[in-house]
Amino acid sequence: SGAPRPRLSFLGTGYLGATYAICFAELGYEVIGFDIDEAKIAKLAGGAVPFHEPGLDELLRRNLQSGRLRFSTSYAETADFADVHFICVGTPQRADGMGADLRYVEASVTNLAQHLSRKALIVGKSTVPVGTAEWIEQLVSKHAPAELGVEVAWSPEFLQEGFAVEDVLRPNRIVVGVKSDWANGMLYAAHKGVFDLAATEDREVPLVVTDFATAELVKVAANAFLATKISFINAMAEVCEVAGGDVTQLAKAIGYDPRIGNRFLQAGVGFGGGCLPKDIRAFQARAQELGAGEALRFLHEVDLINLRRRTRVVTLAAELLGRRHGPAGPDLSGTRIAVLGAAFKPNSDDVRDAPSLAVAAALAKAGADVRVYDPEGMGNAQLAQPDLTYTGSMVEAVTGAELVCVLTEWAEFRNADPVQIGELVANKRVIDGRNCLDATLWAQAGWQYRGMGRPQPR
Ligand code: UGA
Fold first, then answer.
1. Higher per-residue confidence, 441 vs 100
2. Binding of substrate: at which residues (predicted)?
């Protein structure tokens, strides 16, 4: 309403960039999505979202039709089209396993800068080590025509897979790191659609305007906090396991304190995905480089607690199946195990660093005949772990199994009928790796039930 809106580009149409491009077109902006991957761009331009995200397909088609949204593999076209360019390319874990690999950031910024022919704002969004915005500024001053006065800013994103559309349209905050009033004004205009939508719904979206370093740190600090919260409750689960307590009740009880809060206190097989595990490692590496390694040493412990949950499932499996631990771990040869879940969380087809797949692989390595099923993640799982055996349905996975492990809390598994499943398996043993089943119901149906950090039901 009123002031003209800047035209926006999103460079990198992976999960992050594609979602933003589509949602900002929905908010009324003229948007271009850029990627070097022609197949990806062709797919998006044809109205197909290349990954699973609820609600996004419909928004893509609607905004392609409206003409507000286009896709391109041309840096020249992208540079020419937009006033504000968001860098959304991937920042994978480096081969050494710790720091972030910035080659895609470097390539996209360099190429974009070389093609610019008027003043523009380049905004970093990818998750990066603190200091990257300053480095991008140097890249820009080296590659963009000096007389244009191209500027840089930083604006982290906090979207969760499965809720990405809501998280972009209705974020709980917007953070911008800027160095000038011009950049601040451009970024405000670039987010005005978000503020306007909030106003029509009688909400407010807090805006935090800060420096580059803080804006970059906000992102990794938030993810480090969330990872710590999950590992905290999983540490409590470990203690509950030896003390005979119930971590689900403990979480509920401490969560009533608003200073603690009840969200992200779900004990289980731990966190996975493309963000939390990678981010806490990269954050430690960066702090180390900056001479503040000690400050983040606890994140190493957070990582270890998280990985121990995976081992715990394997140990529990051996225990339930009556197998002994050898020096090299349990021997599960000759056993049949159904693993329900491959995605790192429900409502996602993402299997990156998924605890479920890691556990399935460990069970198979221990000699078990493992059958994996996931409602959405099968394609990605087959690519990531081609040696595992996959089935086309839950029924197929559990038929003949001596143990069922529920490792991703899909509704299909949560709502499964223990009586019906019980008729298919060879032995009624279940590990509820997400504490998502009704323990009493399963026990009543004759199952030996084991949760994570909770006693056996009576
Ligand atoms: C996470 C953050 O939640 C987002 O805010 C952030 O923007 C995003 O990373 C990112 O950096 O891009 P996401 O990876 O989609 O989002 O997934 P989460 O919902 O955070 O779940 C992460 C993992 O933690 C999952 O494996 C989930 O099963 C696990 N988890 C979550 C638990 O084990 N317990 C909980 O209580 C909550």
1. 441
2. 158-161, 219, 264-268, 272, 345
pLDDT score recorded for residue 458: 80
Residue 275 annotated as catalytic: yes
Q: Give pLDDT tens digits for 138-148.
A: 999 999 999 99
Taking the C-alpha atoms of residue 14 and residue 85, their distance in angstroms, rounded to an integer, is: 15
Cα 444 to Cα 234, 240, 423, 448: the distances in Å are: 27, 23, 14, 10
310 touches 358 (CB < 8 A): yes
Q: Do 176 and 184 contact (CB within 8 A), yes or no?
A: yes
User: How many Å is the maximal CA-CA distance in the chain?
Assistant: 76
Res 20 pLDDT > 90: yes
For domain 307-450, the CATH superfamily is NAD(P)-binding Rossmann-like Domain (3.40.50.720)
Pocket of ligand 1 (CB under 6 A): 127, 158-161, 223, 226, 230, 264-266, 268, 270-273, 275-276, 344-345
The reply to whether 8-209 and 307-450 are identical in fold is: yes
Question: In terms of C-beta density within 10 A (0-12 exposed, 13-18 middle, 19 or more buried), how is residue 134 classed?
Answer: middle
The domain made up of 8-209 is a member of CATH 3.40.50.740: no
In the reported structure, the alpha carbon of residue 276 is separated from the centroid of ligand 1 by a whole-number distance in angstroms of: 7
Q: Count the helix, strand and coil residues of the chain and give each as a percent rounded to the nearest 5.
A: 45, 15, 40
- Say what the pLDDT of residue 327 is: 79
Q: Is 371 helix (H, G, I), strand (E, B) or coil?
A: strand
> What DSSP element (H or E) covers 329?
strand 329-330
Given a cut of 60, is residue 350 above it in pLDDT? yes
Q: What is the mean pLDDT of residues 180-197?
A: 97
- Ligand 1 centroid to residue 270 C-alpha, Å: 10
Q: Which CATH superfamily is domain 220-304 in?
A: N-(1-d-carboxylethyl)-l-norvaline Dehydrogenase; domain 2 (1.10.1040.10)
- What pLDDT digit, counting tens, does each position of 386-398 carry? 999 999 999 999 9
345 labelled as ligand-binding? Answer: yes
Determine the distance separating the centroid of ligand 1 and the alpha carbon of 97, expressed in angstroms.
Answer: 20
| CA distance linking residue 159 with residue 51, whole number of Å | 15
